Amino acid sequence: MRRIYFLVPDISATKRIVNELLLARIEEKHIHVIAKRGTPLEDLPEASLLQKSDFVPAVQQGLALGGSTGVLAGLVAVALPPASTVVAGGILLASALAGAGVGAWVSGLVGMSIGNRRIKEFEDAIEAGHFLVLADVSADRVEEIEERVKQHLPEVEIESTEPKVPAFP
Hints:
Distance between the termini: 12 Å
Number of strands: 4
Mean pLDDT: 80
Shape: elongated
Largest sheet: 4 strands, antiparallel
Low-confidence stretches: none
Helix content: 40-55%
């Protein structure tokens, strides 16, 4: 899946984009709209906290960093004299899992409080009253969807396409 970003000037064009995406058989759960705080979106699919924050990348980084730290701590614990080789594998595994869990938890909390890095570049336009539509489509349909939207709504700016979309937001 890849995420396409459309910067749309007004709510009527946003509704037309969403309808065009639905006609292209993009499920509503894969369409997200971001607008200025307090702007009524009516029946448009609003982006959730997972799309608006850096939660997923932060959890991924926390898992990697916490797991690495846990493995290092386990290796230090194994190297100390009282540890036997039978217990060493358990200590190493437990410390790696604990480190990954704590790292994911802490970085997830931090990521929830930070705005999405990809959306930051659109903040000025959103504050000016534009709408940002995010569409998650399969990689082989990106060009087809972009062309379809451009054909029906030439005033819409296709800003960028994200290389890949995290699996669960």
